[in-house]
Amino acid sequence: MATNRHDTLDPALLRPGRLDRKIEFPVPDRRQKRLVFSTITGKMNLSDEVDLEDFVARPDKISCADINSICQEAGMRAVRENRYVVLTKDFDTAYKNVVKKDVNEFDFYK
Fold first, then answer.
1. Residue 12 belongs to a domain
2. For residue 2, is pLDDT > 90?
3. pLDDT attached to residue 87
4. Could you tell me if 77 and 93 are in contact, meaning their C-beta atoms sit under 8 angstroms apart?
5. pLDDT by residue (tens digit) across 65-92?
6. Are 97 and 73 in contact (CB under 8 A)?
7. Residue 3 resides in a domain
8. Which CA distances in Å does 74 have to 10, 18, 31, 86?
9. How much is the average pLDDT of 13-20?
Protein backbone atom coordinates (compact mmCIF):
# COMPACT_ATOMS: atom_id res chain seq x y z
CA MET A 1 0.00 0.00 0.00
CA ALA A 2 1.26 3.48 -0.79
CA THR A 3 -0.07 6.82 0.35
CA ASN A 4 0.94 10.45 0.53
CA ARG A 5 -1.35 11.00 3.49
CA HIS A 6 -0.43 8.47 6.17
CA ASP A 7 -2.29 10.56 8.76
CA THR A 8 -5.62 9.72 7.10
CA LEU A 9 -5.23 5.94 7.35
CA ASP A 10 -7.78 4.03 9.38
CA PRO A 11 -6.21 2.96 12.72
CA ALA A 12 -7.41 -0.59 12.03
CA LEU A 13 -4.94 -0.79 9.14
CA LEU A 14 -2.09 0.16 11.45
CA ARG A 15 -2.60 -2.69 13.92
CA PRO A 16 0.26 -5.20 14.25
CA GLY A 17 0.22 -7.80 11.51
CA ARG A 18 -1.51 -5.66 8.91
CA LEU A 19 1.05 -3.15 7.70
CA ASP A 20 4.29 -4.21 9.29
CA ARG A 21 6.67 -1.72 7.71
CA LYS A 22 6.47 1.94 7.00
CA ILE A 23 9.03 3.15 4.47
CA GLU A 24 9.29 6.87 3.87
CA PHE A 25 10.72 8.33 0.70
CA PRO A 26 11.81 11.89 1.39
CA VAL A 27 11.62 14.64 -1.20
CA PRO A 28 14.81 14.59 -3.28
CA ASP A 29 17.51 17.21 -2.75
CA ARG A 30 19.05 19.20 -5.62
CA ARG A 31 21.62 16.55 -6.50
CA GLN A 32 18.97 13.84 -6.61
CA LYS A 33 16.58 16.04 -8.62
CA ARG A 34 19.34 16.70 -11.14
CA LEU A 35 20.03 12.97 -11.45
CA VAL A 36 16.35 12.11 -11.90
CA PHE A 37 15.80 14.85 -14.50
CA SER A 38 18.89 13.80 -16.47
CA THR A 39 17.97 10.11 -16.31
CA ILE A 40 14.40 10.62 -17.48
CA THR A 41 15.29 13.10 -20.22
CA GLY A 42 18.29 11.06 -21.37
CA LYS A 43 16.41 9.59 -24.32
CA MET A 44 14.33 12.69 -25.05
CA ASN A 45 15.20 14.99 -27.93
CA LEU A 46 15.72 18.26 -26.02
CA SER A 47 16.32 21.63 -27.59
CA ASP A 48 19.71 23.20 -26.91
CA GLU A 49 17.94 26.00 -25.04
CA VAL A 50 16.56 23.62 -22.38
CA ASP A 51 18.45 24.06 -19.12
CA LEU A 52 17.28 21.47 -16.62
CA GLU A 53 19.19 23.27 -13.86
CA ASP A 54 16.43 25.92 -13.89
CA PHE A 55 13.92 23.26 -12.88
CA VAL A 56 16.26 21.60 -10.38
CA ALA A 57 16.82 24.93 -8.62
CA ARG A 58 13.14 25.71 -8.11
CA PRO A 59 12.17 25.65 -4.44
CA ASP A 60 9.00 23.56 -4.83
CA LYS A 61 9.01 20.26 -2.98
CA ILE A 62 8.45 17.81 -5.80
CA SER A 63 8.86 14.06 -5.66
CA CYS A 64 10.61 11.85 -8.18
CA ALA A 65 7.18 10.85 -9.48
CA ASP A 66 6.41 14.55 -10.02
CA ILE A 67 9.64 14.94 -11.99
CA ASN A 68 8.66 11.97 -14.12
CA SER A 69 5.22 13.52 -14.73
CA ILE A 70 6.81 16.85 -15.69
CA CYS A 71 9.10 15.21 -18.23
CA GLN A 72 6.34 13.05 -19.72
CA GLU A 73 3.97 16.00 -19.98
CA ALA A 74 6.65 18.15 -21.63
CA GLY A 75 7.30 15.41 -24.18
CA MET A 76 3.59 14.98 -24.87
CA ARG A 77 3.18 18.74 -25.40
CA ALA A 78 5.84 18.60 -28.11
CA VAL A 79 4.12 15.61 -29.75
CA ARG A 80 0.73 17.38 -29.68
CA GLU A 81 2.31 20.31 -31.52
CA ASN A 82 3.92 17.95 -34.08
CA ARG A 83 7.46 18.68 -32.94
CA TYR A 84 10.32 16.25 -32.53
CA VAL A 85 12.16 18.56 -30.13
CA VAL A 86 11.07 19.40 -26.58
CA LEU A 87 11.40 23.11 -25.80
CA THR A 88 11.77 25.02 -22.54
CA LYS A 89 8.20 26.28 -22.84
CA ASP A 90 7.01 22.66 -22.78
CA PHE A 91 8.82 22.06 -19.50
CA ASP A 92 7.55 25.36 -18.05
CA THR A 93 3.93 24.52 -18.81
CA ALA A 94 4.29 20.93 -17.62
CA TYR A 95 5.97 22.06 -14.39
CA LYS A 96 3.18 24.53 -13.65
CA ASN A 97 0.49 21.93 -14.35
CA VAL A 98 2.06 19.23 -12.17
CA VAL A 99 2.85 21.52 -9.23
CA LYS A 100 -0.59 23.16 -9.42
CA LYS A 101 -2.26 19.74 -9.45
CA ASP A 102 -0.31 18.67 -6.34
CA VAL A 103 -1.27 21.85 -4.48
CA ASN A 104 -4.93 21.41 -5.39
CA GLU A 105 -4.90 17.78 -4.23
CA PHE A 106 -3.46 18.71 -0.85
CA ASP A 107 -5.91 21.60 -0.48
CA PHE A 108 -8.67 19.03 -0.87
CA TYR A 109 -7.57 17.32 2.36
CA LYS A 110 -7.64 20.48 4.46
1. no
2. no
3. 97
4. yes
5. 999 999 999 999 999 999 999 999 999 9
6. yes
7. no
8. 37, 40, 21, 7
9. 81
pLDDT of residue 22: 77
Closest CA to 90 of 68, 100, 75: 75
Q: What's the pLDDT at 61?
A: 86
Q: 3-state DSSP call for residue 46?
A: strand
Could you tell me if residue 2 is inside a domain? no
Does 106 score more than 60 pLDDT? no
CB 28 within 8 A of CB 51: no
Strand partners, 86: 46
**For the chain, what is the domain count?**
1
- For residue 68, tell me if it sits in a domain: yes
Q: Which of 102, 95, 54 is nearest to 71 (CA)?
A: 95
In total, the chain counts a number of residues equal to 110
pLDDT exceeds 60 at position 54: yes
Structural domain range at position 104: 26-108
36: domain CATH number is 1.10.8.60
